[in-house]
Amino acid sequence: MMGAVKTSPSPRPLGSVLDGRYAIVKKLGSGSLGTVYLAQDLVSERRVALKILRAGASLEGRERVENEFRAI
């Protein structure tokens, strides 16, 4: 399960909760556009991957991530 594309000015600390729904479990990896985290969806109680874009991500980069989301 994935949600809307998010941007982040700073890294998310482990154990923090994003949007009151996703508890960050661990960092899975990062790249030029952002960071992917393993998180626990507090509503569905499922593990999910969250891609958090860097605040400076270009519009082209954001569109690429949105296209990845639609493909999944």
Provide structural commentary.
The protein is of the alpha+beta class and 72 residues long. The protein is 18% helix and 42% strand. It contains one helix and five strands, in the order βββββα. Strands 1-5-4-3-2 form a five-stranded mixed sheet, with no helix packed on it. The longest helix is centred in the last third of the chain and has 13 residues, at 59-71. The protein is globular.
Average pLDDT for all residues:
81
State Rg.
12 Å
**Morphology call:** globular
Structural class of the helix and strand makeup?
A: alpha+beta
Helix content: 10-25%
Neighbour order of strands in the largest sheet: 1-5-4-3-2
- What is the N-to-C succession of helices and strands? EEEEEH
**What is the terminal separation in angstroms?**
9 Å
Query: Would you count the extended β strands for me?
Result: 5
Describe the main β-sheet briefly.
5 strands, mixed
Residue runs with pLDDT of under 50 for 5 or more positions = none
Output the keywords.
72 residues, globular, 18% helix, five-stranded mixed beta sheet
In brief:
With 72 residues, this protein is α+β, with helices and mostly antiparallel strands. It is built from one helix and five strands.
Question: What topology emerges from the helices and strands here?
Answer:
Blueprint: E1 6-8, E2 17-18, E3 22-30, E4 34-41, E5 47-54, H1 59-71
Parallel strand pairs: 1-5
Antiparallel strand pairs: 2-3, 3-4, 4-5
